[in-house]
Design brief:
Layout (H helix, E strand, L loop, with lengths): L1 H24 L22 E4 L13 E3 L4 E2 L3 E3 L5 E3 L3 E2 L6 E10 L5 E8 L4 E4 L5 H8 L2 E7 L2 E3 L10 E2 L4 E10 L10 E13 L10 E2 L1 E4 L10 E7 L1
Length: 240
């Protein structure tokens, strides 16, 4: 009898435990996590500079290649301390066929992929005859003098917008070639004259295919008055 009671008690106890377990399983609880994050990139992490090296930022003078070697041309200088700048691109031509070429690099010293978006020619070139030089002949000769900027494999001598697929990886570079030339079939003037080119702007940005830069880097190439802008590369040049 006692054994039977024990068995019954054990069975009842087991049923009770199972019943309690089922009871607990019928309840649930949810934990809700709400979160947000704000990201504010540092604009200084986007940095494209001029360099005389294709693998690091070096600011040695840029020595031009002259044709013929007897003409006079100045060495260009690079200053990346504030707005990356190259200056003193200048030459004195003697006759049609003369040219000078400056070779350097656009180096990506930042943390973002940098895209070339546009090359913009700000205005026209101007010609100023020297004392005793015919205005008409100087004007005709001026037509044969040009400036071309080659970025990578593409050359630009007029405004080009909406450029796509031209990028510089972090720690990488793109060659830049600046050519001042006097066309071999060009007219001759009867005396000295000066030629001044307006700005040529190369826009680099963190996005591709934009006519205007929303996140860009400024670089300047010029001879003469300094002209700065927060998101452009400028080329201002004077030569005779």
């Amino acid at each position: 009898m006692n054994d039977r009671k024990k068995k019954l008690m054990i069975i009842v106890a087991l049923i009770a435990v199972v019943g309690v377990s089922i009871g607990f399983a019928s309840f649930s609880s949810s934990l809700l996590i709400k979160s947000s994050l704000s990201v504010d990139p540092n604009s200084s992490d986007f940095r494209v500079v001029f360099s005389t090296s294709d693998s690091e930022e070096i600011t040695d003078d840029v020595v031009p290649t002259k044709n013929p070697t007897t003409i006079t041309a100045t060495n260009a200088t690079i200053d990346n301390s504030v707005t990356p700048t190259i200056e003193n691109l200048s030459a004195t031509f003697i006759s049609p066929g003369d040219s000078v070429v400056y070779n350097l690099y656009a180096y990506n010293a930042g943390k973002y992929l940098a895209y070339l978006n546009s090359v913009t020619l700000k205005g026209n070139k101007s010609c100023t005859p020297g004392e005793g030089t015919s205005i008409q002949l100087a004007g005709q000769a001026c037509e044969a003098i040009s400036i071309t900027v080659k970025v990578g494999n593409d050359s630009y001598n007029k405004t080009t917008t909406g450029i796509t697929g031209k990028s510089i990886g972090v720690g990488k570079s793109t060659p830049i070639e600046i050519t001042l030339s006097y066309e071999s079939t060009g007219a001759r003037a009867d005396g000295p004259f000066e030629v001044e080119f307006s700005d040529i702007s190369l826009y680099y940005a963190t996005v591709t295919g934009q006519d205007e830069v929303y996140e860009g880097q400024s670089q300047i190439l010029y001879t003469g008055e300094i002209y700065r802008n927060s998101s452009e590369i400028f080329l201002m040049d004077n030569h005779q």
